[in-house]
């Protein structure tokens, strides 16, 4: 049952975090690049998720509320080893869905170390909520966990009131 909810992407399962990450990335890339094809792919992905949800609901209806054919009367429940392994996987699905940073943090650190010095790959600049003036040093010290996609942050000259910058 938890496996089916994970496939559809229902919170708090790992499937939700996977779909959230993919859909968020696709939509951010489409909007920041003004690419209507990527936005259309995002819409298609949402549609397929809704269709998957409809199919899973139909499956639940058949499994839990449908009539059992007489040829399946001889089938017994799974043994304890199968039930234990399924319970462990269901538990992992819920734990990773609630605490995804267990896996995201090492991956983001690794990717940042790989691509930080590559001039050909320009990441979307990320900035925290900033009030007041933005100086160039603030942009270089941004923490990746405080994310607001900003396509370009121009350098702001500060006027000290005496005509100097």
In short:
With 165 residues, this protein is mostly helical. It has helices at residues 2-8, 14-32, 36-65, 80-98, 101-115, 136-140; strands at residues 125-126, 149-150.
User: Cα distance, first to last residue?
Assistant: 63 Å
Task: Describe the global form.
Answer: flat
Question: Which structural class best describes the helix and strand composition?
Answer: mainly alpha
- Provide the domain count: 2
Biggest pleated sheet: 2 strands, antiparallel
Number of strands: 2
Low-confidence stretches: 124-155
The percent range for helix content is 55-70%
> Roughly what is the average pLDDT, rounded to an integer?
75
Structure, explained:
This protein has 165 residues and is an all-alpha fold. The protein is built from six helices and two strands. It has two domains: 121 residues, no CATH class; 37 residues, no CATH class. It has a two-stranded antiparallel sheet.
């Amino acid at each position: 049952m938890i496996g089916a909810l994970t496939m559809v992407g229902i919170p708090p399962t790992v499937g939700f975090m996977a779909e959230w990450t993919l859909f968020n990335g696709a939509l951010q890339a489409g909007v920041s690049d003004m690419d209507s094809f990527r936005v259309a792919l995002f819409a298609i992905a949402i549609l397929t998720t809704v269709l998957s949800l409809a199919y899973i609901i139909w499956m639940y209806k058949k499994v839990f509320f449908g009539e059992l054919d007489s040829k399946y009367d001889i089938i017994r429940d799974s043994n304890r080893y199968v039930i234990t392994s399924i319970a462990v996987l269901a538990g992992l699905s819920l734990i990773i869905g609630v605490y995804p940073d267990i896996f995201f943090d090492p991956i983001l650190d690794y990717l940042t170390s790989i691509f930080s010095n590559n001039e050909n790959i320009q990441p979307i600049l990320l900035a925290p909520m900033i009030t007041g003036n933005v100086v160039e040093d603030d942009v270089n010290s941004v923490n990746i966990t405080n994310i607001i996609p900003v396509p370009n942050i121009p350098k702001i000259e500060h006027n000290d009131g005496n005509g100097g910058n």
